[in-house]
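Bumping my old thread because nobody answered last time. Still need a sequence for this structure:
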């Protein structure tokens, strides 16, 4: 009996956790400007992850190079200042003040592409 009671509690907690997952938040809902770690792009294995990052207007996006080769973050349309060359574990941040879709790439490896959608 104790076992079943514990399981039900665990299931309830799990469902509650699912319900609380941020992805269930309606986009555009008014929220505090808490960008935290959500606006993080990792550069790893010659790719930007996530390749498409969607953030609210004003969010500061941080790219961190987790690769063991240098990379850069360069706006394909010059819409934001490009990063310096990022060595391993170095980061670059930019706060997107205007809504839009921002394509970027790595100038060292032009096939590495990513996109930030600001809405
Ligand atoms: Cu690169």
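Sorry it took so long. Here it is:
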């Amino acid at each position: 009996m104790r076992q079943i009671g514990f399981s039900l509690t665990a299931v309830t907690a799990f469902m509650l956790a699912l319900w609380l997952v941020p992805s269930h938040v309606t986009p555009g809902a008014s929220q505090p400007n808490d960008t935290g770690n959500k606006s993080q792009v990792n550069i790893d294995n010659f790719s930007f992850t996530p390749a498409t990052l969607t953030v609210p207007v004003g969010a500061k996006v941080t790219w961190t190079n987790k690769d063991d080769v240098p990379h850069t973050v360069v706006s394909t349309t010059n819409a934001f200042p490009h990063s310096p060359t990022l060595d391993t574990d170095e980061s670059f941040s930019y706060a997107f003040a205007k809504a839009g879709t921002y394509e970027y790439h790595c100038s060292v490896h032009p096939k590495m592409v990513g996109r930030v959608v600001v809405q």
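The pocket of copper (II) ion is lined by residues 71, 106, 108-109, 112 (CB under 6 Å). Let me know if any region looks off to you.
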